[in-house]
């Protein structure tokens, strides 16, 4: 038997969690998130600066030698749990996890240089693929000619906040500054208002080659993204459960708290159990990624296959159990529902991850 | 008037007298009401002929085949047609029936439902909007919420508390409220789809004539039961062709977009298709039972299945869309004229369907009703039945 992964939270991780949570409690409450979601500036740049630069959280996955914190996926996962709990509109998953991990997979001086910029929070990066792309999915490439890139990618998460895009073209990976000539980033209308999407159009845009073989680096980035997205989903589910439990203790109908009806107690107890399982799956993925275990691909897909539906279920239950108020724009539960539903498509659906799991554990489809 | 052939003959005579091709739509519908072909099971003179309800389908088929203008549908006046009308028919005075039913059916007057309050949703009988008698009028003050379509409505069905000293079910009276009266204020309440289909309605010393009371003073809860029963049938009970409901759009997408297909989605889609088709057959069977004169208890369950399937199917549809499922068509706040569960795109359908298990009684409450009234299981111990409304905990 292989040694089991460490599924607990360390003391440092707990401290990190409380630091992030107290910041978000102050700066990212539901009213602020909702107001921002509909504004012209859907990303919270100030909050990002505090998280990324002041607290150094953008560089958790980056070795100190490259200007990062030299921490691991375990700590990044804790940050994501909290960001999920607040549906925070910051490009953490996209820049500090997916783009960062993709660059780590390049192992070239050009990529290393960019890692320093991302790790310090000076720059925001985004992998220019549709957010729905999973680690084993095929994707369309951009056309490349003499280092000039032409083409279009849609549903790119956080592209509107990004300074640099990682673009797959002609088999290679290129860095494209969003400020360059020939780059147009157009906001799309997202289902999840807290993770803005954009269409990226490149018209002979200048690209810096990061690696001639993008494939392995991109898969690595998407896999880490999928594995850690599970922690965001866990945080989101946990918020939905906690909030609903609290509401049902105080909401009275029929001369008693609604939470005293056994039918609802059982529903919430079931949901609690789901979050217990989700936590084990998410921790397992974070640990496997942190230790670069052979099991990492399985752990990441296992976590996605399990946590995706749990987050959606938690948000759907939260809405239903709030009754009419859950259907209103002013109550935050819809932000969580929309995030959960978009997360279920992001980085491969649960079904796509079940297929990966099946392949890896030799349970082939008929 | 219980014979299908007789109704076909009447409908044909009517069509001959009012050829759809040369009759203006409104005039045609007015004539149709007056000929008793609007809702054949209503009494003569009130849009019907006292025929069995099931025979409406015969009339509708004839009219449709002749290219008749369609009647105003439930998407515009669902509360009027599905809830207010049957309640007025059952409890209204002759004068009320004459005054309200014709313009209601014609869609000239839209109705809304002033039932739920911030503190009284599932426990509707706990409502606190007060109605106090003042000569020939009632003075009504309180707040209602989630009022669908109040912004388009001319009239509302309203329940209010007329005696706070009685236990909650006994101190309620049912009224028709004129939404244009002074003291009625409608504020949009935006919902998760981005639209404001429903509203908050503030009633401040609204004067409702006693002539607009439906049923006896203090009997409002009984009257409201008729409304609620009809609401549940109206929400889940539409007659549909195969793939006529929520399953239609996803089936179409599946057929048109082979690149979206996966084995996993396929299994789930077919499973839901089977459930949707079986639900449709259950509805059909229910209608046949009605025609045969023995309505079954299955009706209570139809809205439950409708809501669950609408949510599961639209949820799968968003997933099937993949990258496009990450997008939404439009978050702009607007106040729609109609209610349409299938309208717009997958993301809208998914979000709107969330309301289906809340509006018209939540699924949890409906399950309790099935358990207690259909299965005869004992109810949970209740502490609220015999205390005066004013002494209830909130
Ligand atoms: C889209 C939409 C349109 C609507 N339109 C109208 C309208 O036009 N007019 C109108 O009057 N109202 C309307 N409503 C209001 C609707 O009828 C109420 O929201 C509904 O009855 C639930 O009440 P509530 O919101 O107060 O939830 P609550 O009653 O507070 O319920 C909260 C949760 O507790 C559960 N619960 C409550 N009691 C029990 C129990 N005994 N056992 C188990 N679980 C229980 C509920 O199922 C729910 O999940 C609308 C609602 C929606 C969402």
UniProtKB/TrEMBL annotation, chain A:
Known cofactor(s): FAD
Residue intervals of the Acyl-CoA dehydrogenase/oxidase N-terminal domain: 10-121
GO molecular function terms listed in the Swiss-Prot or TrEMBL record: acyl-CoA dehydrogenase activity; flavin adenine dinucleotide binding
Protein family (similarity comment): Belongs to the acyl-CoA dehydrogenase family.
Domain of life: Bacteria
Source species: Streptomyces indicus
Pfam family, one: Acyl-CoA_dh_1
Name assigned to this protein: Acyl-CoA dehydrogenase
From TrEMBL, chain B:
Alphabetical UniProt keywords: FAD, Flavoprotein, Oxidoreductase
Keyword Flavoprotein: yes
Residues spanning the signal sequence: none
MF terms in GO: flavin adenine dinucleotide binding; oxidoreductase activity, acting on the CH-CH group of donors
Acyl-CoA dehydrogenase/oxidase N-terminal domain boundaries: 26-105
Cofactor: FAD
Keyword Aminoacyl-tRNA synthetase annotated: no
Domain Acyl-CoA dehydrogenase/oxidase C-terminal: 218-375
InterPro entries: Acyl-CoA_Oxase/DH_mid-dom, Acyl-CoA_Oxase/DH_mid-dom_sf, AcylCo_DH-like_C, AcylCo_DH/oxidase_C, AcylCoA_DH/ox_N, AcylCoA_DH/ox_N_sf, AcylCoA_DH/oxidase_NM_dom_sf, Mycobact_Acyl-CoA_DH
Protein family per UniProt: Belongs to the acyl-CoA dehydrogenase family.
Protein name: Acyl-CoA dehydrogenase
């Amino acid at each position: 038997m292989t040694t089991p992964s460490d599924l607990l939270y360390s003391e440092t991780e707990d401290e990190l969690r409380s630091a992030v949570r107290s910041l978000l409690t102050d700066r990212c409450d539901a009213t602020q998130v909702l107001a921002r979601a509909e504004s012209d500036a859907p990303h919270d740049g100030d909050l990002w600066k505090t998280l990324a630069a002041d607290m150094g959280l953008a560089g958790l996955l980056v070795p100190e030698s490259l200007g990062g914190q030299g921490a691991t996926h375990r700590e990044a996962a804790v940050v994501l749990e909290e960001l999920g709990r607040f549906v925070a509109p910051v490009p953490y998953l996209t820049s500090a996890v997916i783009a960062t991990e993709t660059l780590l997979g390049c192992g070239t001086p050009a990529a290393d240089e960019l890692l320093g910029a991302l790790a310090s929070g000076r720059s925001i990066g985004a992998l220019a693929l549709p957010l729905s792309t999973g680690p084993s999915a095929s994707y369309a490439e951009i056309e490349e000619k003499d280092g000039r890139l032409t083409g279009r990618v849609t549903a790119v998460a956080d592209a509107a906040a990004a300074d640099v895009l990682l673009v797959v073209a002609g088999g290679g990976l290129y860095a494209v500054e969003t400020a360059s000539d020939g780059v147009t980033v157009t906001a799309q209308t997202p289902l999840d208002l807290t993770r803005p999407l954009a269409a990226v159009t490149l018209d002979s845009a200048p690209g810096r080659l990061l690696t001639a073989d993008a494939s392995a680096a991109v898969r690595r980035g998407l896999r880490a993204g999928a594995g850690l997205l599970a922690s965001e989903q866990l945080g989101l589910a946990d918020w939905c459960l906690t909030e609903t439990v609290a509401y049902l203790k105080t909401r009275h109908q029929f001369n008693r708290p609604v939470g005293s009806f056994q039918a609802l107690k059982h529903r919430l107890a079931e949901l609690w159990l789901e979050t217990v399982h989700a936590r084990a799956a998410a921790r397992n993925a974070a640990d496997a990624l942190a230790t670069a275990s052979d099991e990492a691909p399985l752990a990441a897909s296992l976590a996605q296959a399990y946590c995706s539906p749990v987050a959606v279920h938690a948000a759907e239950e939260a809405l239903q159990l709030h009754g009419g108020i859950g259907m209103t724009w002013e109550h935050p539960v819809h932000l969580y529902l929309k995030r959960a539903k978009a997360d279920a498509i992001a980085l491969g659906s649960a079904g796509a991850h079940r297929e990966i799991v099946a392949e890896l554990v030799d349970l082939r489809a008929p | 008037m219980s014979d299908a052939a007789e109704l076909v003959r009447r409908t044909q005579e009517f069509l001959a007298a009012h050829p759809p091709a040369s009759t203006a739509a409104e005039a045609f519908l007015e004539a149709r009401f007056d000929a008793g072909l609007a809702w054949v099971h209503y009494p003569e003179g009130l849009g019907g002929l006292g025929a069995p309800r099931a025979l409406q389908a015969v009339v509708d088929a004839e009219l449709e085949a002749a290219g008749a203008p369609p009647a105003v549908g439930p998407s515009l006046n669902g509360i009027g047609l599905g809830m207010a009308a049957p309640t007025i028919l059952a409890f209204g005075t002759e004068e009320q029936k004459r005054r309200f039913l014709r313009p209601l059916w014609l869609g000239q007057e839209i109705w809304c439902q002033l039932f739920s309050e911030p503190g009284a949703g599932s426990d509707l009988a706990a409502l606190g909007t007060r109605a106090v008698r003042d000569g020939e009028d009632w003075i009504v003050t309180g707040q209602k919420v989630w009022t669908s379509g109040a912004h388009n409505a001319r009239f509302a069905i309203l329940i209010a508390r007329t005696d706070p000293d009685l236990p909650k079910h006994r101190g309620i009276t049912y009224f028709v409220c004129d939404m244009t009266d002074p003291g009625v204020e409608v504020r949009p309440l935006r919902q998760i789809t981005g639209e404001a289909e429903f509203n908050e309605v503030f009633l401040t010393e609204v004067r409702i004539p006693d002539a607009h009371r439906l049923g006896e003073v203090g009997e409002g809860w009984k009257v409201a039961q008729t409304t609620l029963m009809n609401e549940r049938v109206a929400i889940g009970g539409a007659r549909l062709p195969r793939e006529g409901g929520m399953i239609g759009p996803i089936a179409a997408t599946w057929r048109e977009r082979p690149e979206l297909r996966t084995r996993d989605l396929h299994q789930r889609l077919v499973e839901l298709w089977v459930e949707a088709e079986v639900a449709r057959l259950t509805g059909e069977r229910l209608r046949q039972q009605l025609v045969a004169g023995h309505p079954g208890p299955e009706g209570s369950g139809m809205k439950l299945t409708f809501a669950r399937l609408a949510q599961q199917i639209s949820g799968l549809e968003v997933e099937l869309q993949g990258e496009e499922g990450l997008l939404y068509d439009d978050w702009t706040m607007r106040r729609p004229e109609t209610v349409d569960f299938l309208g717009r795109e997958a993301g809208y359908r998914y979000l709107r369907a969330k309301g289906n298990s809340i509006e018209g009684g939540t699924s949890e409450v409906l399950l309790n009703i099935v358990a207690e009234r259909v299965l005869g299981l004992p109810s949970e111990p209740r502490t609220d039945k015999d205390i005066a409304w004013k002494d209830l905990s909130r």
